[in-house]
Amino acid sequence: MEWNYQGDRGPENWNTICSAFHQAESESLQSPIALDDDQITATISQQSLIFDYNKTLFESSFFNHTVHLSPKTNEKLNTVIFDHKRYFLEDLHFHLPSEHEINHESFPLEFHLVHRSVKNELLVVGVTVLPSERPMNTVFAAVDERALHPRVAGRGLTVPIELTRLLPENKQFYHYTGSLTTPPTLGPVEWIVFSQQTFMRQGLLQAFKKTVGKTNRPLQLIMNRPIYLSNN
What we know:
CATH superfamily: Alpha carbonic anhydrase
CATH architecture: Roll
Number of domains: 1
Order of helices and strands: HHEEEEEEEEEEHEEEEHE
Structural class: mainly beta
Number of helices: 4
Helix content: 10-25%
Number of strands: 15
Shape: globular
CATH topology: Carbonic Anhydrase II
Largest sheet: 13 strands, mixed
Radius of gyration: 17 Å
Distance between the termini: 42 Å
């Protein structure tokens, strides 16, 4: 079912496009939300989140209005353990500007690492991004801006990624339960959003803006749900 980020089929009208979109939005707590240290319900242990990421070949594609990177191998090499449950990475994609706000601040870009458990439960790791002209210690430093064009990304460009280098050095994170941020906006989704940012060179960020454009869902109501912050 066709949807968009602007116009009659934009986010404000997603729930009117079809019954599946309406049901998803009305039956689950929605994402993204504003994350504010002043509204934290409780702290949780930083040790409750464990990454087991490895260098992996990813294949690019362009759908749902953005660039996606999916592991080429069928082996479940990259996992996250959260609250004693293991989730397997299946997709990495990008939103501009950031979907979550952190302490009232929005960021130029946010990427999502989408994971799924053997019981089909979802966990998404959100990483907000700032521009920098200094040499980056991330795989994005080596990405050719031309590779982000839909015609190129859609051809299945293969990219080796060392995932641990995409994460911020400070691993403090927020946790809450919400939904996917693209239709159908199904929940529940366990969200992990880092409080600190990683960096992307300015030229690459501009290439994302040119290729992807505005692809962020507006903030959703918190609805009294608990929000947790890990001890740092």
